[in-house]
Design a protein that fits this description.
The chain contains four helices and three strands; from the N terminus they run βααβαβα. A three-stranded parallel β-sheet has the order 2-1-3, sandwiched between helices. The protein is flat.
């Protein structure tokens, strides 16, 4: 089995579409998705990230991007393969930082 560290980002701050923050969690709970991974020799090790609650949406996004970036920096420094899953495309700012 090939093990991938998987960052699941639960946020809809950039998309502003209710429910988009559930994307990674829905995949994580999907029997069909889990079977597909297993059948292809892939084991995902999930790390869930969430934005901090608060009134300032832009500050919450900034903090989330920093959490994503820090977590991925730790993973990349080990040389482990990874995947980042989030429906909100704004999360790419933290992923590619």
């Amino acid at each position: 089995m090939r093990r991938l560290k998987t960052i699941g980002v639960a946020s809809s701050l950039g998309a502003n579409i209710t429910g988009s923050e559930l994307g990674a969690a829905l995949l994580m709970q999907s029997d069909r998705f889990q079977r597909l991974l297993h059948d292809n020799g892939v084991d995902l090790h999930w790390i869930q990230l969430h934005p901090e609650a608060g009134d300032d949406k832009f500050q919450a996004q900034k903090q989330l991007f920093q959490k994503i970036s820090q977590q991925l920096h730790r993973i990349v420094s080990t040389g482990d393969p990874f995947i980042a899953i989030g429906v909100d495309h704004a999360n790419a700012m933290g992923i590619w930082q």
